[in-house]
Structures are given as C-alpha cells and as structure tokens.
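Progress against Task 2.4 (sequence-to-structure conversion) is shown through the following example record, which the project officer requested during the mid-term review.
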Amino acid sequence: MTGGPPQEPTAPTAGADPIAARLTALVERLAERGASVDTAPAHRGWQAATALVLAPGDQDIEVAIIERTRRQGDRWSGQLALPGGRREEPDRTLAETAARETREEVGLILGPAVAQVGQQRARVRSGVVACYAFVIDEPRWMTPDPAEVASAWWVPLGELTDPDNATTLRYAGLPFPAIDVQGRALWGLTLQLLGRFAELADLELATG
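Structure tokens generated for the chain above:
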C-alpha cells in the first residue's frame, strides 16, 4: 500500500484474530531470542540499520518491503530491501536509525523496536548493517520518498517462506539465491538479514 499521511503506531491486539495472535507469539519469540535493541555492533566502520516492520494482515503476517530508486553509482540501486539507511549524528542507537529512516523513506512512524534480529557485515567500504524488528497494528499506507524509494508495499510472510518462490539471480556472472517477490528478486544483504530473522522466528525462508 502507498499513499496517505504518516501514521502513529499502535500495538496489535490478539483478541480472537488468529493472525494477530500469531504475530503476538512471533514478537514474543523475537524479544526472547533476539539481541537487545541497545546492543551496538563492535565495529569502527560505517554503521546502518534496517527496519523489519511486521503487521497483521487479513490473511497473514505482512512485512514492509521497498524497491530502492535507481541511482547511478549506488550499489543497492533498484534492489528490494527493508527500509533503512546509515546512522547519523542525532541517532542515539541503531534502532533509532532504523525508525528515523523508515519515517523518512516511507512515512511510517514506528514505536520502540522489539529486538535486534540480525547483523551483517557489508562489503562496501567495511560497514555493518543491523536489522531491528518493529510491529504495528495493521499494514498502513506508505508514502515513498522518490529520491530514495521507487515503490513500497506489504508482502505476506508466507510469500517469503514458500519454496515455490525460490529463484536464482545472476550478478557479475555468478548465481545467487533469491526469493521471487511478485516478479522481483529479493537477494543479497536483505536476504541474509531476513535469514537471521527466520532462524529466530523458527521459520524457513523459501531459499532454505
């Protein structure tokens, strides 16, 4: 979904909704098994953070996915990703970085992070990217900043775990595992971060 003003977050309530109940159980696992949101990478290079935003949809738990704007010289140009970006001076923690970047890129206002669910070294100029889980009460409208994000939408978690969506992407002449997300390949750093999330959540991504 896209369009509409930024929305204030509210926590999901399980009640009689089976999807909300699944999400509540998932959040509890992440909070128990993930790293503290205050855990900082022991790394002196550049730091960045992404937001794994989860919401209870009509049929499944849904994840906010973006397609980055194509820009010359940008290694991640045009790729599918989670909202996020580099840490800036006002950010006290990388969790704050993830929330700020999500607000700037797609207009979602997030509450406190649940846990750090992944951390990955980036090959570009020796950096590190951390991933933080956030939860909101429904898949809210997103308003992409065209300078950063070409499009943004909500993807059912089941699409990321369905083996039928496993595919391969060739980059620099080499094959890389990927997930077909509605006709576009999700791979690389984002796939690695989602893989760590899946381990914590007792899930298996489409790529195995």
